[in-house]
Amino acid sequence: MDDSKPSSFLTSLFVILAVVVLGVIIAAIGIGAYFLRECPVQPYIPVYLIVFGIFFLLVLIVSLVLLFGTSAKDIYELLVLSILIISVSAILYLFIVCWFITGSVWIYSVHPPSYDPTSQKNYCNKTLYLFAFWLNTVCYGCLAVPLLCTGFLVLHICVKISCQRPQSLASQQQA
């Protein structure tokens, strides 16, 4: 059996996912910059998209450096470089999580805005707002799936352990 087929499929899947994520990041930066002054109801929404995109891009670059760019000459240098890159990544991730929560407040607090430019007080450009809204909503969905899977796994393990315990107690009492 050829073992390269599953790995080539996973590689292709990873590349496609990376291209899609990169496209969304670039779109977030572009849409935020293009519509920078077109959301008076919440002027921080375009800023949120720009900063979110830039920092997510930085996280991707730092992660790629961690995966592929370590050309350390000895184990000590590799360790120091790895600790530095992991520390920078952790700080970037922490900032992105805080920024994501802040952006969620900005986006969902004005839902739904007016898409009519004549109502200046409640207006937000439709493309800008809907992109930010769906970006955050999809991100929440992407966060929910692994959390739910982890919860079901923990529940499964707890049920399995609790079902095995009465059997082991019964076998000990019979002996």
Tell me what the structure shows.
- This protein starts with a helix and ends with a helix.
- Helix 1 (4-34) runs antiparallel to helix 2, helix 1 packs across helix 4 and helix 3 (75-109) crosses helix 4.
- The protein is extended and about 80 Å long.
- It has helices spanning 4-34, 44-68, 75-109, 126-174.
- The chain is 80% helix and 0% strand.
- The model has no long low-confidence stretch (mean pLDDT 86).
- By secondary structure, it is mainly α.
- It has one domain.
Kindly summarize this structure in a few lines.
The protein has 175 residues and is mainly alpha-helical.
Shape: extended
Q: Strand portion, in percent?
A: under 5%
Secondary structure class reads mainly alpha
* Domains, number: 1
Helix content estimate: over 70%
Transmembrane segments: 12-35, 47-68, 75-108, 128-155
Keywords: Membrane, Transmembrane, Transmembrane helix
Search tags:
175 residues, mainly alpha, 0% strand
SSE diagram, text form:
Layout: H1 4-34, H2 44-68, H3 75-109, H4 126-174
